[in-house]
Give the backbone structure.
Amino acid sequence: MVVQHAEHHEEHAHHPQESWFRHYFLSTDHKIICFQYMFTGMAMGLVGAFFAYVFRMQMAFPGVHVPGWGLVTPADYNMLITNHGAIMIFWVAMPVLIAAFGNYLIPLMIGADDMVFPRINRLSYQIFLLSALVLIVSFFVPGGGFAGAWTMYPPLSAKAQYSLTGDGSTVFVFAVALEFVAFLLGGINFVTTAMNSRAPGMKIYDIPIVVWMIVIASLLFMASVGPLIAGAIMLLFDQRLGTAFFDPNRGGDPILWQHLFWFFGHPEVYVVLLPAVGIVAEIITVFSRKKLFAYKTVLSTAIATGVLSFTVWAHHQFVAGIDPRMANIFTVTTLIISIPIAEMMFVYIATLYGGSITLTTPMLWALGFIGSFLIGGVTGIFLGSSGADIYLHDTYFVLAHFHYTFFPIAIIGTYAGLTFWFPKMFGKMMNDTLGKWHFWLTFIPFNCIFIPLFFTGMLGDHRRIFDYSNFSELSTPMLQHLRAFATVSLLVMLTAQTLFVYNFVTSLLWGKKAEKNPWKANTLEWTANSPPPHGNWATLPTVYRGPYEYSVPDRAEDYWPQNAPS
Amino acid sequence: MFGKGIIEYWVPAVSSYAHDIDFIFDTVFWIVIAFWFVVVEALFLWLIVRYRKKDGVKAQYITGEQKHEKRFITWPHYLIMVCDVVIVAIAINVWYKVKQDAPPADETVRIVGQQWAWSFVHPGPDGKLDTADDIRTVDELHLVVNRTYLYKLEARDVLHSLSIPVFRLKQDAIPGRIVTGWFKPIKTGTYDIQCAEICGFGHGLMPARVIIETPEQHTAWLSAHSASAAGE
Amino acid sequence: MSAASRPIATTRSSAGMPTGRLAVWWVIASEIVIFGGLLGSYIMFRLSHDAFAQQAAHTNVWIGTVNTLVLLTSSLAAVLGHKAAEAGDGPKAARQLYLTALGGLTFASIKFLYEWPTEIHEGFTISSSTFWSFYYTAAGIHAAHVIAGVVIMLFIAPVAKKGLELQRVELIGLYWHFVDVVWIFLFPLLYIAK
């Protein structure tokens, strides 16, 4: 049932009386809120990347003074890896992929003038910003930042006498809890807007895949985070109020935390995966001029993955002391979940068949996602097989696996989306040559960082160890060379990011003006101005077909916008 | 599987179940990397090259909803399911052997993790744990080759995890619980023990060594230790 | 945001349900998972620790019953408020909302001004035992939701009295019923199961 509107929504220019501060900091416009999330996320990404630089320097050159940090003590090291992980997942991947792209794309792609609850939208960002600031504060409290891994396992995280970061532990948990609240609030908008505010004529299967993916991701997040919020409260109380939820000496159970954490933790990886996969779908259809292969299958594999993601969590706990019989159940469920994900990848690859492919920068990123996520996916099978996980758990094999999933998701997915929608967002074109250099100088070093780490893990390097010289089997030249090679590759990759920053800024300032639809794409955002004004369109569009009608036979143009009547 | 396992090229296989764990690792490798990854990645790259934009050639309009199109997805789909069943069967088999089906033990040892060291309690000359002649060590676990051991794993403060890579063994130690398991060393030698669960600042500073001896060497060690204990 | 500056997006209804209602169901769903996690943990602990039952014997089932009746009555007021709002009777809806809020405040007062101080005085604090940790945590988070609901009602009622934004009466009523339902689960778990 669609409510028709006879009244026209007047086109708003930027409110002329609005001060610069109001416009950029207090706006309720979904596009501005996107940029707020985007830039905060990227700023946090710089912090997370800096931490990676420091601890990888320690890995390559143990005991050597690191430029920009100094000597890396064992305490430093643990703090750095803990916060690197937490920052990248909670304060980079989530805000950029879900909140930024979700905020920008959902109203524009469904033909709406904004999100349904703009003030709640603004509030969600403000709480998110607060959570980021609280995390930063945690580095400066007495005792320093929390250093017990992003997974916060008690009793280490619950008791200051063990962690030696009493205040840092509390502030960290508090920051994470705030971030959860921010995203629960944000989810209100994503789901209600996508479900309810679609343009007249946009039926369920006419919704662009990326919108679906963000909606499913929001649902997944909401359904999985509750128990961990409860757990976080319990952990905070253990830390501060003397409760013993997780204290085995007083009737508590540390393993309960692990279950609460991973019940959320596993769906969480799909929460960040799905938006990235959605972005990739939008790009590969445009730059292969092809309809998405089996749209309904893409949707059903995404939903299946989401549902199944609730059944696999204890594969993170195979050797944690759970009932060994349970481990067998989770091996089965974990291998089952590989099926819909594999199918999704196959469908994407099938979309390329018979296409007319141009390798623009966004397309390179999108294809790079598929090519590298495949490695992440297949290496997960090693870890889901309980018998093999006995050996591989807590080694760098695990780390390489999840970086081969997270890096494509958070970094490649972000660059794909940014380079693709930059013209729409900022009204300028990015330099494609620079973009390609940036791609290759990121993509190749990325592989050079993590392939060696599969090997160091296989050879026995355990995670979260600041210096391997205490272990004779791990102090071999071969292993040290692999570690150093990974670090040097990271340095190359980090340096290459300056290309992106340069491209971004110069394009923003002096780039060629972008037309409405530079990529000749079908989805609704490309019918708005570049950039769209407040309210997005003077007259909101009506939809007549699905989003992927490319290269339709017997048509002059090889694209057919959703809002074109014929 | 076919002679030496992949991991064994670099890490010796020193326990009776190391080869089993290597076997599941290798199985997954051959199925998932050597076959699936190579095939899919190659197909993917080929498609990119083959369907590069060419002047005058329009892309095809394929919905993917037709049966003859869908079979390119459903056939690999079924093949994956078959592979998964094989992998699961072997994985569960290995898991059962290592974690569920402890054979009768010749001896029991107690292994204790704490911030930040491993300590071990060996049965003394009487062969029984928790008797007066037990031998306590820090950082060194002494075992006899080809003897089957039951281990009782404890943690004094926070979570730790016993990891002996050459055994392929890993097991978290939980404060307030005693976790049991088993191993049987099959080669003599001295190897690393690591902690595999972050346990505070000193997590990387609690290495230990497992020293696997012949029965004669072990008896000598026992007498040396009992003598020094008696001398106190 | 006044109706004039509200986005068109807010007024559409492609899913067939008013947006506000969809949003409140979303909030309720996320709260269900939060409470579900907490109560699930409680049940697991309870099943594996006999000492729990021992401690649970000390909760006051009479106060619990009174508070249950208070909440149920307040929910009745919320329902009546919704009916009045549907009929367009703003002042009546506002009155019923104030009554609902009064019920919520009564609930909170009984808990914070009598029940908890008594229990703490008897030595049952949040750190006495895991049962009491759960008791105060679960009932405390629930009470926080009660107070939040009351506060929101106090914002909605004056506006409704003027006959404006009457759809919000139903929405806060929905939320309030959820808070009630959580208590319906808490009450037997914390008070009756001894």
Remarks:
- The two ends of chain A are 23 Å apart (CA to CA).
- Residues 1-14 of chain A have pLDDT under 50 and may be disordered.
- Residues 32-527 of chain A form a domain with the Cytochrome C Oxidase; Chain A fold (CATH 1.20.210.10).
- Chain A is about 65% helix and 0% strand.
